[in-house]
């Protein structure tokens, strides 16, 4: 900051010299660059991202972090003047532990904010909203018990435990834990699982990535639960960091970046009135 003040003083002195217009042009560019440097964070922002939750957070075909939530967090880091963030891979099992241990400051994935989770972590404004749904076979036998997969350590598992996922009077279910969404997809294609319970947009992406499933399976129209996503923060009690993240998200909602990311990563929701309304409501003025 001392250097910046001295450069500004020099600029005022030069303004009195009519032969220094070219120099002043270069001086203005230098001043802008120095100001940007003065506003930048010295430390990096470490971001935990799920490696197995497309379209929100995953490793793409070139083994690079990708997804709606990953790109959203990259924009948050940019707005807050952090350097390009360090991206720390996590799984559904260790994501909150990694956050608690300080391996990262933000968790960017398919993370539902709940009252219970807020006891241990800070959460941002709602970044996305979806529901839990069931993928099941188009044709079944009345006497058949269907093997239905799910992920542990998720709100989906909570929905199963509370009896929200049932086959009603027409289907009988037996639930089986799997390691990841990718493992579930392979098991369904191989006939080891009859169906899968997960957030609707994850199921939609799974079927889009595995076209053969469209011939044999469908997704329930009725949602089983409300799933509001948010960015989780390790810094419990750090109101300034949470405020900064919310300030960045509000800007991304106001300028249309968040909606553009939805169109890029989740085209099935590109004309979704619920998401558009959510982003409008959270476009908090400066």
TrEMBL record:
<dbReference type="Pfam" id="PF00497">
    <property type="entry name" value="SBP_bac_3"/>
</dbReference>
<dbReference type="InterPro" id="IPR001638">
    <property type="entry name" value="Solute-binding_3/MltF_N"/>
</dbReference>
<dbReference type="GO" id="GO:0005576">
    <property type="term" value="C:extracellular region"/>
</dbReference>
<keyword id="KW-0813">Transport</keyword>
<feature type="domain" description="Solute-binding protein family 3/N-terminal">
    <location>
        <begin position="44"/>
        <end position="269"/>
    </location>
</feature>
<dbReference type="InterPro" id="IPR051455">
    <property type="entry name" value="Bact_solute-bind_prot3"/>
</dbReference>
<protein>
    <submittedName>
        <fullName>Extracellular solute-binding protein, family 3</fullName>
    </submittedName>
</protein>
<dbReference type="GO" id="GO:0006865">
    <property type="term" value="P:amino acid transport"/>
</dbReference>
<keyword id="KW-0732">Signal</keyword>
<comment type="similarity">
    <text>Belongs to the bacterial solute-binding protein 3 family.</text>
</comment>
<dbReference type="GO" id="GO:0030288">
    <property type="term" value="C:outer membrane-bounded periplasmic space"/>
</dbReference>
